[in-house]
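batch job 7 of whatever, protein = Methyltransferase
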Amino acid sequence: MNNRNFLKSFFTEYWKYITVSAACKLNVFDILVSGEKTSLEISEDLSIKLENIELLLNGLLAIDFLDRIEGRYLLNNLSELLTDSHSETLKYACLNWSGEHLEAWSKLDESIKTGNSFFENKYKNNYFDFLDRNEEKLDHYHKAMNAYAMDDYKDITDVIDFNIHKSVMDVGGGYGAAISNIKERCSELDCYLFDLDLVIGKSNSGNSVKLLKGDFFVEIPKLSEAIILSRVLHDWNEEKAIQILNNTYQALPENGTLYIIENCSDKIDVDLSLLSLNMLVMCESLERSSYEYIALANQVKFKFMEAKQLNELQTILIFKK
């Protein structure tokens, strides 16, 4: 393919994602869990005009997100992962990148010129305050993050021996994928999940993890000798990140341990440039190097001990109080 043809195709690549996102929003994949259906049956099930649903179904066929046999549509290996009932569903991960994210990205030029989040300029709230005011969006966001976390933290206990502690708290841990994994492997360990009221209320961590409601910008409970901050600090500018770290410091006992888990740009081979642009348009933040996270932690007197690689993206930075 020559350069002109490549560019003409490249300009409309997002059409594919939006087609899949629309199917998730309309629950097209979910109604096919029970079995294959004709376009008329799908139209009737969803109460959508036949000619419109056929446009969408044909688009999904064109990009290999559905199969069709003798006029009946059925799920394939991709679309199965976009159903609510799948144990490893990525439906909400798909939905996460449309909506407000897509709108903010469409104004990337404004964020580049001003250094400000287009999202915050429009909604007069940071992204997470916006989510807190919309329970459904908050739930969808944390379901999306939980889907990523299930993959990201599956080997965490192979990298860190949490049994050296009596207790560990996952601060800002969402629906609890990381701490649930730790508790499953370290059954004698006291495990806590700390997050906002609405988040904790929908956590699926089970009875073995103790649930704590609160705000890490206000106060973190003094209950654990180790604290995890996983993919928390990258959401915030330097001032807010230091505020979180200071409250973490206050919550830990003397010689307590802090585990910061982040995509550290200097520790991986993956280019984080596009992810940093996403952090700018959404949060006025960025992906940082390990040196930058260490410098932030040093400002509140944490002592850096060592770094361990968790996976191809994430590094665990270990600190002592």
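notes: The domain at 3-87 is CATH 1.10.10.10 (Arc Repressor Mutant, subunit A).
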